[in-house]
Amino acid sequence: MKPILFITQQLPEQAVADLHDVYEVRMWPEEERNAPREKLLEEAKEAKALWTMLGDEIDRELFESATNLKIVVNLAVGYNNIDLDAAREHKVIVTNTPDVLTETTADLTFALMLATARRLIEAEKTVRNGEWQAWTPMGLTGQNVHGTTVGIVGMGRIGEAVCMRAQGFNMEVIYHNRTRKSLEEAQYAELDDLLKRSDFVVILAPLTEQTKGMIGERELSLMKETAILINCGRGGIVDEQALYEALKNKSIWGAGLDVFEQEPLPLDHPLQTLDNLTVTPHIGSATVQTRYAMMQLNKEALQACANSKPVKNRVC
């Protein structure tokens, strides 16, 4: 009998076709939502392999009940949804999808900067709602992007790719990172200094104990009134209630978010009431080419595990 692979959300058949040779593939049949918790735990008890999404909670309870489990492949570069300590204790391999989504996520980050600064969502609604009556001198005026200062919090691969794009807009780039880097295009700054100087504060750090809640009421109060906050890192890094107050009171000019503390963002969340906020549904890596590249990395890890070969892109 073939070992069981459970996939927690429907994926394109071409992404999983080769896996039928080495696994009994079971896949949750819905593309718009993950398998319910009860179903995930039920399938994990029999599975040798799990192919998971960022919204799946792969915790100690799951590892303790999944006695046959050998590998979890996560369709994301992040893995804060997985209890790595529990995975190590139960000798389960965990992999992610590094590198292949760098440029695509940097594109989305810059798109959010542009959309927020130039109020593109508001402008589009004005046209579609029939509210565009005439050209006016100060109608829908936004903020410049070119020639401004961008402060990047988390200068990893994606941060460096955003830095490269900023050069084309003649932007000054400063950054804050846990370790300093030798970069000709960017200058290191302490976090408080970065917040005070930047026209755009771009969050690209991973969610860790050190970064959780990093941007709160005090940090937001240091930003310019004309500044824009962009978060394409992880939702828990920014205190959303503090951000709501800052945007509502216009102590900062605007924000663009692709990630949130709770995903999907509830319709009744206070952030949903703000016009000076641009939101996208965690689509940083969402291009056809990049998502297939991510799936390919996961698939190769699953095949290697099934064939008792070394597994690449391990995080534990």
Automatic annotation (TrEMBL):
The cross-references to InterPro entries, in alphabetical order and at most eight, read: D-isomer_2-hydroxyacid_DH (IPR050223), D-isomer_2_OHA_DH_cat_dom (IPR006139), D-isomer_DH_CS (IPR029753), D-isomer_DH_CS1 (IPR029752), D-isomer_DH_NAD-bd (IPR006140), NAD(P)-bd_dom_sf (IPR036291)
Q: Does the keyword Metal-binding apply?
A: no
Question: Where do the D-isomer specific 2-hydroxyacid dehydrogenase catalytic domain residues begin and end?
Answer: 7-315
What Pfam families does the annotation carry? 2-Hacid_dh (PF00389), 2-Hacid_dh_C (PF02826)
PROSITE patterns found in the cross-reference section: D_2_HYDROXYACID_DH_1, D_2_HYDROXYACID_DH_3
Which keywords label this protein? Oxidoreductase
**Similarity field:** Belongs to the D-isomer specific 2-hydroxyacid dehydrogenase family.
Which PANTHER family does this one have? 2-HYDROXYACID DEHYDROGENASE-RELATED (PTHR10996), GLYOXYLATE_HYDROXYPYRUVATE REDUCTASE B (PTHR10996:SF283)
Q: What's the protein name?
A: Glyoxylate reductase
In which organism is this protein found? Planococcus citreus
